[in-house]
Design a protein that fits this description.
The chain is mainly beta. It is 14% helix and 50% strand. The chain has one domain. The strands form 2 sheets. A 5-stranded mixed sheet has the order 1-2-6-7-9, with no helix packed on it. It has a 4-stranded antiparallel sheet with strand order 3-8-5-4, with no helix packed on it.
C-alpha cells in the first residue's frame, strides 16, 4: 500500500472516530414504578439528548423527601413530582437549551376509571459531570389524547 493511500485511510479513520466521539445524546433509559394498592404500575422512559446522563434510577431508596422539582444530588439530579393513580407511562426528554437544560415529562394515563390520588414520584439521573439543579427547567404535561 502506498504511503499516500495509507495516510488518507488513517485520516479518514481519525475523522470518523472523532465524529462518533463528539456525537451528543440519543441515549434512552427505562424503568418503572410497581403497582401498589389503588395505583397502576407506571413505566418511565428518559431520552437524554445532552450526552450527560449515564443511568437513571426509578424511586431511589433512602432519599429524603423533597418538594416537586429538580434538586442536587451527589450522583446527579433528583427529579420529584406528584403523579396520579392512573398514570400508565411517563416519557422524559432531557435537552440542553442555551446555557441551561430542560427536562420535559409527558404523562399518558390509562383510560380506566380510577381514584383521584396524588402519588409521590422520584427518579435519580446519574450524570457524567455535575449539572446544577438551578440550571434545569422542569415541566410535566399530559400526553393523553
Amino acid at each position: 500500500m502506498h504511503a499516500r493511500t495509507l495516510l488518507s485511510l488513517l485520516v479518514a479513520m481519525v475523522i470518523a472516530a472523532g465524529c462518533n466521539f463528539l456525537s451528543v445524546g440519543g441515549a434512552t433509559f427505562g424503568g418503572g414504578f410497581p403497582e401498589q394498592e389503588g395505583v397502576e404500575s407506571t413505566t418511565v422512559q428518559l431520552t437524554d439528548k445532552t450526552g450527560e446522563v449515564t443511568d437513571m434510577t426509578v424511586d431511589p431508596p433512602n432519599e429524603p423527601p423533597t418538594p416537586d422539582g429538580v434538586s442536587d444530588h451527589a450522583d446527579g439530579l433528583v427529579v420529584t413530582w406528584t403523579g396520579g393513580a392512573c398514570d400508565a407511562s411517563i416519557d422524559f426528554v432531557f435537552e440542553q437549551v442555551g446555557g441551561g437544560y430542560t427536562l420535559t415529562g409527558t404523562v399518558v394515563t390509562t383510560d380506566e376509571v380510577c381514584i383521584m390520588l396524588g402519588v409521590p414520584r422520584r427518579i435519580l439521573l446519574h450524570l457524567r459531570t455535575p449539572i446544577p439543579a438551578g440550571s434545569v427547567v422542569f415541566t410535566m404535561g399530559d400526553g393523553a389524547p
